[in-house]
């Protein structure tokens, strides 16, 4: 499965600033779909369907929830980004005035504590890849510490991360984040890069038992350079770099790093591999 290339008619010059709402829309419209093959591979392996009660940690703007719900699962999502969560609510929950909309069992909440209270869940997913920035594994361990006890013994937990750097073309572009931020060792300090045992380390610290793993090709494809830059900046991996310099400089240097991946027709294409670890509680 390959990501759909969608053209967005905006200026191609880097903008000086962008609000959180615009970044969340860029995530929903451009970047989130790049991980769709990962979602599909996990759901197929675990046979997600009507018997599944799923809790998505870091649900973003809801694409993975929509896919699971389409397979019949009952879903709950939580995300710390209020703008992304608002987009997820718009996608999954009918507006009050839409009286003809079908009922949905989806729940979107602001905290992991609220999400846990909506349990028990048979499946917990963490589709935000860890190993990107220092401290992201610690944050996930804290979330799992709240979510897993409410899921019940024997529930399934799926952790995800980037694959080996040599199989991820985007890794070289993401290194711009740590270089401009000046420090990839502290939380929020830009791109750290994955380590071999990142997922196993989180599983061990969370009291989970690994029970299989897999790798999934997730190419990043963009209609043009502007879409590629905006999509990558929407990941939040460049936030520290923007704070250390400014958005214009970050956009310019990301665009320069993307040039080797620009095709003759103007599209931007990078092959990547992501990894998932299936665990039981």
UniProtKB/TrEMBL annotation:
The keyword Kinase does not apply. Keywords: Methyltransferase, Transferase. GO terms for molecular function: methyltransferase activity. This is Methyltransferase domain-containing protein. It comes from Streptomyces castrisilvae. It comes from the Bacteria. Residues 55-92 form the Methyltransferase type domain. InterPro entries: Methyltransf_11 (IPR013216), SAM-dependent_MTases_sf (IPR029063). Residues 1-11 have a biased composition (Basic residues). Residues 1-24 are annotated as: Disordered. GO terms for biological process: methylation.
